[in-house]
Amino acid sequence: MRKIITLYILLVCLCACLKQETPQEQKEALPQNTLAKVAGYTLTQEEFDERAELLDPAFKQYVSTPLGKQNFLNYLISERLLQQEALFKNLQNDPEYQKEIDTLVKQQEESLKRAKEFFLKKTLMDNLYNEGVLYVSEEEVKDYYKKYPYEIQILQIIVNDAQEAAQVMNYVKGTKTQNSFKEVVKKFSKDPLAKQNQGALPPFIPGEYLPEIEVPAANSSSGQVQGFIQTPLGFHIIMKVGENRLSYDKAKERIQTILEKQKLDDYLNSLKEKYGVEVKNESK
Known about the structure:
alpha+beta, 284 residues, 59% helix, Chitinase A, domain 3, 3-stranded antiparallel sheet, 5 strands, two-stranded antiparallel ribbon
């Protein structure tokens, strides 16, 4: 009888232990990729990684450590708690909040519009290359190099009107040196970069600058002053500094770009005839 009582007590204790290990209200295990649940929102490892990828490199390296990962997880949890509280207080209907969101939506819509325009144009350009419209052969590059195996360097003064250009020409008629011409540049040129570059342009192969300037520059001798020449930029007075012969290897990429631009200009002119272009004349 004593043995039976002892066995009964042991069975009761064992059942009690089993009940404590598997309670009826035991919480359901979180999915494997879940890091935390906040107010019913599941914060996953994928979201953690995406947010971490946006961090600066130094912070990204810190988040890769155990301590950094825990701290960043705490930050994301805090962020979600604040968002939940804002929703609870119905702040999504706050006028200031709505104003900020409306502004952001407009900015994103504009960015998306510009992106669509850019990639549509890029797709057309890719098609034009594939169709051969903008293709430039090596033979074309070599033929262009035979005509223009050199680059030209000039100094220039740009003014707004013909009367002013005529006055400036009186100052430079007797100019014989680059330094004296540069002094006139600093005094009269309306070019925004004149004070920095003293009127000097980067050396150009014919086809890289304005044709109205390239032709007289190519046909003049070093040190010669020419002007005044009208272009869309204004009225130019130029001094040729010199010419520099280029090797084919140094010139070919630049010539390739020149010829591609010429073909693109021809294509654009055909589109102007096809669709029509009207530009408002502000001087009227």
